From TrEMBL, chains A, B, C, D:
GO terms for molecular function: N-acetylneuraminate lyase activity. This is Dihydrodipicolinate synthase family protein. InterPro entries: Aldolase_TIM, DapA-like. PANTHER family: N-ACETYLNEURAMINATE LYASE.
Amino acid sequence: MTKVIRGIVAYPVTPFSADGGIDDGAFRCVTENLLRSQPAAIAFLGSAGESAYLTEEEWRHGARLGVETVAGRVPVIVGIAELTTAAAVAKARYAREIGADMLMVIPVSYWKLTEAEIFDHYAAIAAATDLPIMAYNNPGTSGVDMSPEFLVRLVRELDTVRFIKESSGDLNRMHAIHKLSDGAIPFYNGANHMALEAIAAGASGWCTAAPNLLDDRPARLFDLVQAGDIVRARALFYDILPVLRFIVVGGLPTTVKAGLALRGLPAGAPRPPLKPLVEADRQKLAEFLAALRVEPAAA
Amino acid sequence: MTKVIRGIVAYPVTPFSADGGIDDGAFRCVTENLLRSQPAAIAFLGSAGESAYLTEEEWRHGARLGVETVAGRVPVIVGIAELTTAAAVAKARYAREIGADMLMVIPVSYWKLTEAEIFDHYAAIAAATDLPIMAYNNPGTSGVDMSPEFLVRLVRELDTVRFIKESSGDLNRMHAIHKLSDGAIPFYNGANHMALEAIAAGASGWCTAAPNLLDDRPARLFDLVQAGDIVRARALFYDILPVLRFIVVGGLPTTVKAGLALRGLPAGAPRPPLKPLVEADRQKLAEFLAALRVEPAAA
Amino acid sequence: MTKVIRGIVAYPVTPFSADGGIDDGAFRCVTENLLRSQPAAIAFLGSAGESAYLTEEEWRHGARLGVETVAGRVPVIVGIAELTTAAAVAKARYAREIGADMLMVIPVSYWKLTEAEIFDHYAAIAAATDLPIMAYNNPGTSGVDMSPEFLVRLVRELDTVRFIKESSGDLNRMHAIHKLSDGAIPFYNGANHMALEAIAAGASGWCTAAPNLLDDRPARLFDLVQAGDIVRARALFYDILPVLRFIVVGGLPTTVKAGLALRGLPAGAPRPPLKPLVEADRQKLAEFLAALRVEPAAA
Amino acid sequence: MTKVIRGIVAYPVTPFSADGGIDDGAFRCVTENLLRSQPAAIAFLGSAGESAYLTEEEWRHGARLGVETVAGRVPVIVGIAELTTAAAVAKARYAREIGADMLMVIPVSYWKLTEAEIFDHYAAIAAATDLPIMAYNNPGTSGVDMSPEFLVRLVRELDTVRFIKESSGDLNRMHAIHKLSDGAIPFYNGANHMALEAIAAGASGWCTAAPNLLDDRPARLFDLVQAGDIVRARALFYDILPVLRFIVVGGLPTTVKAGLALRGLPAGAPRPPLKPLVEADRQKLAEFLAALRVEPAAA
């Protein structure tokens, strides 16, 4: 049985160099910075990692580099977000080959998918490797909305689908997953702006790019709620909330890359059509980080 | 300075007799039942009290009967939900005359209101009495949606507007009220389905009709979160969640009256076009209450 | 069989005098102005008539005054928008007594209504008089959304419910009503901003307050589409569209009263909390009317 | 100056053979079938063409095959829907090389794009070739919603962006484009379910996959409205509406391929995770086509 990850699942951005390709050195620095944030796991090539904007070869390179850099210090999760089942299966196999520990799989739609279509998409990926899978729901970015009932069914009917990540931002979904599985299926919060409440509601973890900028504050928030210190948890949550909201509203690659540069850890620009953060927003982010006494990232 | 209410604000239904008028005896029984649920306050003539369906004379009768029955045991809040400012002012004055302790005011729209129109509506009501006012936002039933910024402005600019009740079900609103006022403005949760999380987020209280059916369980939930016993709080919350959701989804007057009848405390039917709960749903509610070992209400 | 109304159903505002009551003289002037706009019928006490903001006595006065003023020159429709079935039935009976020709009935919700509840609401009103009824769907103002299937069922199962007014602004609804009834149930468009298209789609008429400000332009638009002169219909529609949109976005009572004052036909202010149109918007409306060469209303 | 296309812009599906690749023979048959439907232009590799599911090489093959098959009989438009600007520019250049007449460009988002980001995306594509461009708005499939103001700005500021395709299904958008440009910018309707009304509102054309199944009926509808024969136009529209709605609700590749098979022109299955139409829906589509007396497609 897979060990359940409890705590923070940290998401790196994918740094690009001036010529537009992946910057391996910066990639390693960004990863080391995250490893200092007390994560329970690191997830490469998720939304924050601009996975959707990479070529297939870049994706493979990033996955391999991630596994090598982490080198077993924490479990490595690899994100798979593909329109076609064939491409998703190929990536799953590759992730297995290079030694990833888990897959996080989100269906992506151009044409709306039926539940039968989504189910078979997951089934094909699950059949391709023995890696445990986190089913990931994020209708806002993927265009696919999976109900709690369907997500629980995926876990029940597909052996290696064992975890759920919910990023719809709807507490009712988490409540429903908990009730439908009598608390037995670990679910993870992917909505930064309600991290305090999701942990209170029983989330096993919090999937977030925030540690890139906030170091171990997310991990401390998780621990405070677990310890029942609701007063200090609440105070910490409200302190970091402006940053949590800012990075989501402005788009994770854009804002996190700007914040990393402010911390002395340049990760390049996001890939066009995405643009670097505009100056007024960069100032605002700098003020948020200063108010929290966020320090430069170690080299 | 008004004492801040902390804990449960309990909402009675308004019982009708077979001829359609207010049933005074049942009204008193419903109120006594609520008083046994450890409420911090009781709020008459809110949404659950079918306020919108009463004639003006009935409304006055209900308000008076409420104040008399509670007889100072806990603070009494009276709900005001009027389309015209003139009618709202008249009700505010009446509530003051009969000895109510606080007003809960929600603007109601047929035609969409501008913020200037809503502000002056509150200002006129505030000017009519010296009673403290809870500004109440519930876009789903009232058709008016007041932003956190506007609600905080109401509290800052109108002396007697001191509290905010948020029923939009959006955690972001509570976070915003907390941040905008540095935690200084007490806010109350009006969304049953997220009570656990709203209390975790710092709500001063929970406005709910649930104690009609769940006795002191809501009060215990509130206390458990305050005490940092997040594990038992979560367990209690998930236990009562089916009832919390059921009474909201089915409409409070309809479902709570059905539940009270199941508990041996008949409160009549809701007023047409509202109908009594259909039999299949009544069975489901009975099962929910049985699973929680809810006992008959004391006579 | 009721004669089918074809063309414009014109909606007057309800003028108030300085002391806040209904201004009978202005009421008659507003009505006469509408009668000059080539309407197929006039509908009193609809949304534009601030019906929801009137006391019961004022409503009766307005209905009676409307019937008397029109004096049979065109059919008179009276609007009924009540939360309780009892109040709606009482108004239906009164409308019959004073000689109205048709009822336009919209259910209003505070608590969400089931279809069974809405159906019985209509059935009770239909049973109260022999007047033909137009079932009116306007979820935006009433909080009740009736599907095309349900509306067609109302017409099929209740003898005197014979017409449908659709104000949801969704063309699919009109298409569905047409298909479900093989074109046999007359439906009316209540969404000003898509009048051209609704008439093209087969609406029997257009329910609108626009003739208060635009005289017979709406009637001409209706006739041009019927005559197949799509080029001139389109040109006229785009000409008047800024006014059509303006009066809806700003709220009919507020904007139409401002526009009538600009035309030399003062109808007082809307009832608080509604406020008179702000000056900047009044200027904009004046420009729109000037661009269309709208003339002062005849005395 | 580019000649304005008036009438039907027809969209083929992309047929796959049993091994999953593009089926050249079927591709040519599908194209010839469309050429018999009186189209004003043919648009390859749009939404209906499963463009998003093709590899880059397949996309190039499809574009080339399309241009070759049409062989100048009508203008050929090629669809470009890419997440990265670099990929979009490369496709634009390729389309120019192979002799396409126009580009239809829709931005696609994973991360929400600012208007500055969308503008530069279009600017880069426009700078890459001299082909005229149709800016295409379809928030439902692409995740990007461009306002009428922004679309008009694109046309004004970028020389080769000359046309707008609106598929949001919101009549207000078409009205706004017409008003903002005084009728000077040709706009095209991409929402099948409101084709009658969009043409009445002044659309220069209708972009649709419907001719695959309905032959010249869409072209006749367009002509009837232009001719002012609103009665026959309406009758034809209501006749074909069930098919228009069916193919959109069920997803164009899935339903159109099923319909082509029913007509004796097999185009294979859509690409997984998309599945062939389920049997019950295939039956329903067969009935719709039979009711319209749609004949087998010519070989």
